[in-house]
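Mods, move this if it's the wrong board.
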Amino acid sequence: MEERNPSELARIVERNIEALLSRRKAEERQLSFQERIAEHVTSFTGSMKFVWLHVIVYGLWIAINLGAIPFIPKFDPTFVILAMEASVEAIFLSTFILITQNRMMAQADKRADLNLQISLLAEHEITRLIKVVSEMGERMHVQAAQHPELRELKEDIQPERVLDTIEKEERRMFHHERRGHHDQGR
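Not the wrong board. Structure tokens:
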């Protein structure tokens, strides 16, 4: 069996990394203006700069309105304005985060679809290889080529049937668990 030179493998990995980074940059260039704003806001609000800014601003706000800084007059002694400001800020921040999460979920869905396609292609290729090697083994009268498991492995997997089986099993387990909880309540 031919062994690969480590530098060859590195070139393949390097090429794949470059392709992925290139794709990611292209996707970032395609973001709308609103998506870019949401991305920047989310990035900033998820940073320590944002935390420290709030510690300073809210700390000063509280200190001033508690009278800890006597030369600055109180402007929100009941902290109602602070509470309102924090609530409005929370509404906007959660909206920006949801926008960013929705975009990230769409990207994750695309990547999951790509992974599924690659896995299905790999499974198909492996199935074909098993058929070829199995036929060679049979012609050469190799005992292992007669293994019963090979008959199954020579068949392409149908993803729809796998998904249907998983869903059926999940429903069965769910109903079994519900029945168990129902029986315990008696």
